[in-house]
Amino acid sequence: MPLDVAAIRQAFPIFERTVHGKRLVFLDSAASSQKPRAVIETLSRVYSHSYTNVHRGLYTLAEEATALYEEARAKIAAFINAPEPAEVINVRNATEGINLVAYSWGETHIRAGDRIVVTEMEHHANLVPWQQLALRKGAALAYIPVNDAGQLDLTVLPALLEDGRTKIVACSVMSNVLGTVPPVKQVAEMAHKAGALVMMDGAQAVPHRPVDVQALGADFMAFSGHKMCGPGVGVLWGRRELLEAMPPFLYGGDMIRTVKRDHAKWNEVPYKFEAGTPAIAEVIALGAAADFLSNIGMEAIHTHEQEIVAYALERLAELPRVHVLGPGPAERGGVVAFWMDGIHPHDIAAILDEEGICVRAGHHCAQPLHERFGLAASARASFYIYNDQDDVEALVNALRKVERVLGR
Ligand code: C6P
Known about the structure:
Layout: H1 5-10, E1 18-19, E2 22-23, E3 25-26, H2 37-50, H3 60-79, E4 88-91, H4 94-109, E5 115-119, H5 128-137, E6 140-144, H6 157-161, E7 166-172, H7 184-193, E8 197-201, H8 213-216, E9 220-224, E10 234-238, H9 240-245, E11 256-259, E12 264-266, H10 280-296, H11 298-316, E13 322-324, E14 335-340, H12 345-354, E15 357-358, E16 360-362, H13 367-372, E17 378-382, H14 389-406
Parallel strand pairs: 3-15, 5-6, 5-7, 7-8, 8-9
Antiparallel strand pairs: 1-2, 4-10, 9-10, 11-12, 13-14, 14-17, 16-17
Helix pairs in contact: 2-10, 3-10, 4-5, 11-14, 12-14
The chain binds ligand C6P.
């Protein structure tokens, strides 16, 4: 194992507790990760020592808080290799980041007759904003399909791009259900040749593997702080020239340069897109989360998750009633969604909970994808830096109990 999981677990206070008298086996980091002491302490330190509003006060404390907030922006920019911190916009969550693009860029660039391309594996957050934009504008919405192995079928893309009607392609860097890591770089190259932009959803990728927005050729990338050991905030990154040309998404304080009775002028990026008081302490703590992950090493985290997911797939194959969605270990991140013959995923989750194991059950905000596989729901185990083979062992043993209790 490339990570010292025992030492990492020590850094997370939550693992000191038990659930139903059992060791906590947390397999739901794809929904939201746990928080290390470094992040919790940063939040506490900011609130007890350095908290004020930012970009407003002229006193020492306000300057300190502003500096910490902007330092965090720079850390987050470095984490995804953004060319400059000003391209990083602090938002509530990945969902808000994508909505920002769909409203701001979308309202000004999408016209009747244009086409927006999404994929069948998108989370609702990178699907519904585009679907609704298409409906508002009278544009077409087209899907890149997912094949039976859970991979994107890119053979349809040239035809969707060649007529020049496609203006943006919305594509996840990693599926939250299949775990699939599609060839987004290739998607971006194809889209750019046809004059289209790419909105990459990095919510499941940025916390788990090195993500370089420049190397991937992204135009926009949204991700969630709460899935990468940070607090409940999100990030939108966009190329500066695009952000400069986009109108604000929300109006109010801080995003403004001058306001007259009948018109207003906007602040520069990124402030133009950060209307109102941001989640100051949380953003600063997200900077601490980026430091925490960088110190472990994103490459090592990725290798660790590949090893653990390969082991999980091998062990789950021992269970005849379990059917795993998605591709083999080489093409997926640390997410394993599955269904069991004749057993509802909610019942699986309930029995696993009795064993102290947290998994998610439902459609995971990816209903069209579940429909594609003829399912209403699935159970999902997702892995992170604090999981090891013992957790997989616990999962497999608990699934045997599910079979004993509920199998007919
Ligand atoms: N997926 C899951 O359990 P927010 O909630 O806005 O921070 O992230 C939305 C989001 C966007 N894209 C992908 C690929 C995601 O997985 C998520 C969040 C969680 O799978 C909660 S639904």
